[in-house]
Amino acid sequence: MAAVPLVLGAGGVARAGGKGARTLFIAGDSTAAQKYADAAPETGWGMAAPFFLHSGIAVSNHAVNGRSSKSFVDEGRLDVVLGAVRPGDILLIQFAHNDEKSADPTRYTEPWSTYQDYLRTYVEGARARGARPVLATAVERRRFDAAGNALETHGEYPAAMRALAAEEQVALLDIQALSLALWQELGAEETKKYFNWTATEQDNTHFNPPGAIEVARLVTRELLRTGVLRPRDVRRLDDVVPESWITWPEATA
């Protein structure tokens, strides 16, 4: 399938940003990415982000399955994003799941050196174009110990991102900590309803529509809390969002 980013308005309908509109660009991995009909019901949280945004904020989701902060750059994907951003836009950066794959030199980064170096490339690129960079720690996987405690799975990567955000004075969305707390609150059994558990698959990394909606809600709340978005930019933060609003388009060649 083609990894063509969809630009979505707040109603979830594809559109180009009008004059004066801002766009939220997402650079990330499969947990955020647009999914297509052949992957349903797997859902990236970026697909649900427009449900929480008012008109005037479009979403351009460039997240792609399997990418790390390194491979996203090496494949020229960051260049595409930076070629599209305009002053006033937001570049949300969420990586770690694939940076952790030490057996794969095309994706692996070390938390306190190359991971931070690549993230800094995104930050500096956005700022050079008048856009606002935002760092988001990686959403947690579904993993529990025998006592029912939700477990951290991202090692030193969240701490490394937090440190970089402080050093570079970049807004930080601590989605790792927030999602871990949510999984703990829900518990081992209830969280199955948020991940891509089907009759044939037990996926503890990727989301189904309810999970994607709730992670998108966490992201939007953090964008509001950090002042990246204003109250007039967001909606439905306390409302039930029907999972039927999620749709999976056919992949294009």
If you had to describe this structure to a student in words, what would you say it looks like?
The chain is an alpha/beta fold and 253 residues long. Helices cover 32% and strands 15% of the residues. It is built from seven helices and eight strands; from the N terminus they run ββαβααβαβαβαββα. The protein has helices spanning 45-48, 69-74, 77-84, 111-128, 157-168, 175-190, 209-225, and strands spanning 6-8, 22-28, 57-61, 90-94, 132-136, 171-173, 195-197, 202-207. The strands form two sheets. A six-stranded mixed beta sheet has the order 1-3-2-4-5-6, with helices on both faces. It is globular, with a radius of gyration of 17 Å. The N and C termini lie close together (6 Å). The model is unreliable at 9-18 (pLDDT under 50).
| Low-confidence runs | 9-18
Q: Largest sheet at a glance?
A: 6 strands, mixed
Structural class: alpha/beta
Tell me the span between the first and last alpha carbons: 6 Å
Helix fraction, binned, reads 25-40%
Q: What's the β-strand tally?
A: 8
The neighbouring-strand order within the major sheet is 1-3-2-4-5-6
Query: What is the average per-residue confidence, as pLDDT, rounded to a whole number?
Result: 93
* Overall radius of gyration: 17 Å
SSE series: EEHEHHEHEHEHEEH
How many separate helices?
7
Q: Which word captures the global form?
A: globular
